[in-house]
Design a protein that fits this description.
The structure holds three protein chains of three kinds. Chain A is an alpha+beta fold. Helices cover about 35% and strands about 15% of the residues of chain A. In chain A, strands 2-1-5-3-4 form a five-stranded mixed sheet, sandwiched between helices. The longest helix of chain A is centred in the C-terminal third of the chain and has 14 residues. By secondary structure, chain B is of the alpha+beta class. In chain B, α9 packs across α10. The chains are: A alpha+beta, B alpha+beta, C alpha+beta. Chains in contact: A-B, A-C, B-C.
Chain lengths: ~150, ~800, ~270
């Protein structure tokens, strides 16, 4: 089926099999491998990206459902060679170790701040409930998101 | 005096941000599954749905004609491919029983997830779709799930071995026979406990992935793998498949966490290489999470019988340990040795006489093989002694903190030769415990507890402690030899100063989240008096870093990092010869400060390293007999393990109506000697603590009696999220290690080692007023509720 | 993991969706947000041959004050239910419960209608709407019909919806001045409830429904009846599981579920009484 999707500002016209998941579409058809896959059950959030400005799990959405949508992946967050403030906050607060959950975590965190620009620590923790990390114990992830919020 | 240097006196010990991060944060980093390999075939593995069954037949014909399928192989089809069985590198006893284990089973399957056939196809989807078309006929056999059942040999899994017991390994203290029995006979107090270390699934966020790229005409083979051990993997794949080692290259691209689960040689790595060779095209495999839960190793899995003897003051007089270790259906790389990595630590941080008796029996079950999981043997040991200490304190009616203080090895006793003969390098347990107690307001919590934990209270407060020693920095090669481990414990480093005074460091460590590039650049910058920005760190590719023993066992800094510092020193020694020659001075009169050699007392007679590097490159004017270029290689075999230590204190509140445990506060005081980068140290502890806390409160691989894993997804296997864990309060003491020039110790596993016993001691402490003295992990709401129900009967 | 192959058709209106599903028969399924269906399809526990995508029927995404009730379009996303000012005023229990479905990413895609039509007793919104005395509106080839929530849930993932019927609207009676509570007990925030309770109280009336206490969401009528008869909150809560048939799973035995239901119902009623 033919779809037209704007990804990181570029319009892509593609022909996809209906069963293609959005995450496979961005990774394989568009070569945007920054979005990672960590589970089969919509649990880990590693594949989170933005659809029309909101974080979704791209393993739980068909590419055909994204027809006409505007998508931002982790590759689309930095602008003009400058990392997004959330990316910077993660770096400055050591909010990542192996980096595998990181793109999804950053996309979930930016979506969270859009909805709640000044969250409490508890709201950050709850707001990231859909993203799993095995390295950081979350302490510095939470710190990163709070720092990004404070910098806004 | 004015400091004119434009850099701090040393970059060591600063919170330098990680150079690894921008690529990881922007999606630029490439994990194995991200590699673009045109023409690659995709491998999918058909896995046994039975824990234990005979394979009667495998019909691959329908799958072979499925769209996109290039080839289908059963285990029998590939039997001739393997030069040797899959490697297991640790025969812990000369008579250890170890069944032959091949990448695909051909006669019998021994766990759910055991590979029986595989498909090569032009896409991953085509390969996986075809798996459904392979018809395997099985004769199911009884599963062996329980360890004590396995020990009984009611069902023998590997008939040729005649028993499920693989080995029994004993540690008795020579010359002190009978002392343990005597101590127990004369003890004022004895503790006898049976603890269960539940099976855990490592669940690194990146599942495994493999890609083998052959050079059909050149004969070479490049294996990309999400592995912690590219160097070990290279040797093992070469040996198993009969590939000349010099034609084998292994690359670990960005690796998304390991925690021991990627310290292995896996069937899929061997399959990809063998099939890439056979078909002359790249072959790749990506693990799905459901496969990861059954086909990647599990951790822990022990029954621990712990006995302590103590005198009237609570001073420990003997420790006796009997372990039963679950190895799963087969041995993976170092399965058998995992419990033994804790064998020396069951007396913990306490001053024990030579009355120690340890024995471990490894048994096969029909479950996923176990192997290293964060801490590997040491969390188990620490849990056993620290839980048992709380039981002893309870028996004596004294505060567990007080009991520990009576038993700590004292600061003055270091270096301390333990009953095992091992020398603990340095420590100050009392200081760490007192700092932790102060930070956790230990006395305050005890006071609140008296008010809060009254009869009928539905919110019970508990506080628990764990003081740990961890034996890490694997390892002195001779000690490994005495344990029959089939490799050494050294690490290699090369430091190369380029003509323009930029530096390349080649390390044999293989980071997968630990930030080695940042930390190693700081060590080099400190040593050479340059900026870390001028240092490139090369690793995880055996063509670039051919020598190394990789990253596990909190070894990278105390072995690999030290090797780098020593290589820097070696380069400086050579540079000094050039500087002396050029400055026409005696080498002994030169000092190296801030990146320059200066003649002592003549500050104007100076030569910066940059100038020496260029001289070494042009070689126009070098001392006679000196080779051009500035480069040095060091292989460092550590004289001792490193012995980080600390005290963790956890405060919990338990809702007795629901059984829910809430962690109110978690304080971790850790001592890893000198810290290269406190930012990274803290990150390691945070993550480690949550992993240990997860064992205590959330995680357990649950099997039914048929040997089927009941929670093999991240929806059911409860890796906690941010909303489920607390902030962590960190403190540090710094007691440098005297055994290495950096004074450093490992920190990768410490958090995990301290956390599970600290949390469980807190849980039991909260419930102690109800008469509860122990509970199996995880302390899930259901388990806590059951314990409360049981106690009130 | 990716789903088995299927055909995909998109409906522009409810009528078109119903006609498409009729055309493709039993093997076809509606796809709304996809957060109940796609996870099952990825695990190949569901393998419909046709998906009728109703996600673009924008006129089924609304929250309207309809006098004595609030009308919610079936395709309204959890996030919109959670943040709706109208619902916060007239059915705050539902808005609050919607904020506890899955995680934020799930709430950005999942819809209230999808969750109810899926009829999973472990989901939060079937029980919550049941407690609130909701009426569901279904549209079929022969027009629309109203189904009381109390008549809707027939068994595990089974509802009163005919195969060619589509849930189009959820009607929540306004309940001015009612106290309410939503108790979700789980081990991780993102997970389904081990046991959940949605409850409201106003004057002598009460509505209590249970999440994950049987094959369907359970209306705890014994509790409401006891309260109406003057029982104390703690006595009424003892009847929490009278209508339930709790199952055994990794997180809880039936006995523990019954116990939790009593504790959580008591807490919910206490909170609703404040």
């Amino acid at each position: 089926m033919k779809i037209s999707v704007t990804v990181n500002g570029t319009v892509h016209e593609s022909d996809v099999e209906p069963r293609t998941l959005l995450v496979h579409y961005v990774r394989e058809a568009l070569g945007l491998t920054g979005t990672n896959i960590g589970c089969d059950t919509s649990s880990c959030g590693a594949c989170s990206l933005h659809v029309d400005g909101e974080a979704v799990k791209s393993c739980t959405m068909l590419a055909v459902q994204a027809d006409g949508a505007s998508i931002t992946t982790i590759e689309g967050l930095a602008k003009d060679g400058e990392m997004h403030p959330m990316q910077k906050a993660f770096m400055e607060n050591h909010g990542l170790q192996c980096g595998y959950c990181t793109p999804g975590m950053v996309m979930a965190a930016t979506s969270l701040l859009k909805e709640n620009p000044s969250p409490t620590e508890e709201e950050v923790r709850i707001g990231l409930e859909g993203n799993l990390c095995r390295c950081t114990g979350y302490h510095n992830i939470v710190k990163s998101v709070l720092a990004a919020a404070a910098g806004n | 005096m004015t400091v004119t240097e434009d850099r701090p006196s040393s970059v060591l010990g600063t919170r330098r941000l990680r150079r690894e991060d921008p690529a990881l944060l922007t999606g630029e980093a490439k994990y194995t599954t991200d590699l673009n390999l045109p023409g690659a075939l995709h491998l999918a593995v058909l896995r046994s749905p039975y824990a234990h069954a005979r394979i009667l037949s495998v019909d691959t014909s329908a799958a072979a004609s499925s769209p996109g399928v290039v080839a289908v192989y059963s285990g029998a089809d590939l039997a001739d491919t393997w030069g040797t069985p899959m490697p297991s590198a640790w025969a812990v006893t000369p008579d250890m029983k170890n069944p032959a284990h091949y990448p695909l089973a051909s006669a019998k399957v021994c766990y759910v997830g055991d590979g029986v056939a595989c498909v090569l196809a032009t896409s991953d989807v085509a390969a996986r779709d075809a798996l459904d078309l392979i018809d395997v006929q099985y004769e199911p056999l009884p599963a062996v799930v329980d360890l004590e059942d396995a020990l009984s040999d009611r069902v023998v899994i590997h008939e040729d071995l005649g028993t499920n017991s693989s080995y029994t390994w004993d540690l008795k203290i020579e010359g002190h026979e009978g002392q343990v029995e005597e101590a127990f006979a004369n003890a004022a107090y004895t503790v006898r406990e049976r603890f269960i270390q539940q099976r855990l699934i490592p669940m690194a966020m990146e599942p495994r992935a493999v890609a083998a790229v052959p050079q059909p005409f050149g004969g070479g083979m490049t294996l990309y793998s999400a592995t912690q051990v590219p160097h070990i993997l290279k040797v093992m794949v070469a040996l198993t498949l009969g590939i000349p080692e010099h034609q084998m290259r292994v690359v670990a691209p960005a690796v998304g966490g390991g925690f021991g689960s990627k310290l292995d040689v896996y069937a899929e790595e061997l399959l990809c290489v063998a099939l890439a060779r056979k078909h002359g095209v790249p072959v790749r495999w990506v693990e799905e999470r459901a496969e990861n839960a059954v086909a990647t190793i599990h951790g822990r899995g022990q029954i621990q019988h712990v006995e302590l003897a103590a005198d009237a003051d609570g001073k420990l007089t003997a420790v006796r340990i009997r372990l039963l270790a679950d190895m799963g259906g087969y041995q993976q790389l170092i399965t058998a040795g995992i419990p033994l990595l804790g064998a020396f630590l069951y007396a913990g941080v306490y001053d024990l006489p030579h009355a120690y008796d340890f024995s471990c029996t490894g048994v096969y079950t029909t479950l996923t093989p176990t192997d290293a999981y964060r801490g590997a043997g040491r969390p188990e040991a620490t849990y056993a002694i620290e839980r048992a200490m709380d039981v002893l304190a309870d028996q004596m009616g004294i505060d567990p903190m007080d009991l520990r203080k009576r038993n700590f090895i004292q600061k003055e006793q270091f270096p301390y030769t333990a009953f095992t003969g091992l020398v603990y390098d340095s420590g100050d347990h009392l200081k760490a415990a007192e700092l932790a107690a102060e930070m956790a307001d230990y006395e305050g919590v005890r006071a609140r507890q008296k008010v809060q934990n009254v009869p009928g209270a539905t919110k019970l407060l508990g506080i628990g402690q764990a003081s740990y020693f961890e034996m890490c920095g694997l390892a002195p090669s001779r000690v490994l030899a005495s344990l029959n481990y089939s490799a050494g414990g050294w690490e290699a480093a090369t430091v190369r100063i380029l003509p323009t005074n930029k530096v390349q460091v080649v390390t044999g460590t293989a980071p997968h989240g630990q930030g080695h590039e940042t930390a190693w650049s700081m060590i080099v910058a400190d040593r050479l008096g340059i900026s870390p920005d001028d240092v490139d760190v090369l690793h995880s590719d055996t063509a670039i870093a051919p020598l190394g023993l990789d990253t596990y066992g909190s070894r990278s800094l105390p072995v690999g990092g030290v090797a780098i510092a020593m290589a820097c020193d070696k380069v400086i020694d050579k540079a000094k010869k050039i500087a002396a020659h050029q400055l026409e001075a005696n080498e002994d009169d030169l000092e190296f400060v801030g990146g320059s050699f200066t003649v002592k007392g003549s500050p104007d007679r100076t030569m910066p390293l940059a100038a020496i590097a260029f001289e070494a490159f042009t070689a126009h004017n070098l001392p006679d007999g000196l080779e051009p270029n500035l480069e040095a290689q060091v292989t460092y075999d550590p004289p001792n393990f490193s012995w980080p230590f600390g005290t963790h204190i956890c405060t919990v509140e338990i809702d007795t109506e629901t059984g829910q445990v809430e962690v109110l506060q978690y304080v971790a005081v850790d001592d890893c000697g000198n810290q290269v980068n406190p930012l990274i140290v803290e990150g390691q502890v945070h993550g480690g603590v949550v992993q240990g806390m997860a064992q205590a409160l959330y995680e357990e691989a649950v099997y039914d009696t048929e040997g089927t894993l009941k929670n093999g997804s991240l929806a059911e296997y409860l890796v906690p999220a941010a909303s489920d864990v607390p902030n962590i309060t960190l403190g540090h003491t710094i007691t440098p290690s005297p055994t290495n020039p950096l004074g450093v110790k490992g920190i990768g596993e410490a958090g995990t080692i301290g956390a599970a016993p600290a949390v469980m001691n807190a849980v039991i402490d909260a419930l102690s007023g109800l008469g509860i003295t122990d509970m199996a992990m995880p302390a899930s709401p259901h388990n806590v509720w059951k314990a409360i129900q049981g106690a009130s009967k | 993991m990716i789903p088995a192959a299927f055909d995909y058709v998109r409906a522009g209106s409810a009528a078109e969706a119903i006609s498409l599903i009729g055309e493709h028969g039993d093997e076809a399924k509606f796809l709304a947000g996809g957060h109940s269906l796609l996870p099952l399809m990825k695990l190949r526990l569901a393998a419909p041959s046709v998906l009728v995508d109703i996600g673009r029927i924008s006129d089924l995404s609304y929250i309207r004050d309809a006098g004595d009730h609030i009308a919610i379009g079936a395709l309204t996303r959890h996030m919109d239910v959670e943040t709706s000012a109208v619902l916060k005023e007239h059915a705050p229990l539902l808005a609050f419960a919607a904020g506890h479905v899955g995680d934020p990413q799930v709430r950005h895609r999942g819809t209230i209608g999808g969750s109810i039509a899926h009829a999973d007793s472990a989901s939060d919104l079937p029980a919550t709407t049941l407690a609130l005395g909701a009426t569901y509106v279904a549209q079929g080839p022969n027009g629309t019909r109203e189904i009381a929530a109390t008549d809707f849930y027939h068994g595990f993932l089974e509802s009163a919806l005919e195969p060619d019927e589509m849930l189009t609207e959820i009607r929540i009676p306004k309940m001015q001045g009612a106290g309410w509570s939503f108790q979700k007990f789980n081990r991780r925030a993102q997970d389904w409830a081990i046991v959940g309770v949605a409850a409201w109280r106003r004057n002598g009336d009460a509505g209590v429904a249970l999440v994950n206490m049987g094959s369907t969401p359970i209306l705890a009528t014994s509790v409401s009846a006891a309260l109406a008869g003057g029982a104390s909150v703690s006595d009424a809560a003892q009847l929490a599981a009278a209508e339930a048939e709790p199952q055994n799973d990794l997180n809880a035995s039936p006995e523990y579920r019954v116990h939790l239901a009593k504790v959580l119902v008591r807490r919910a009623l206490e909170e609703s009484s404040k």
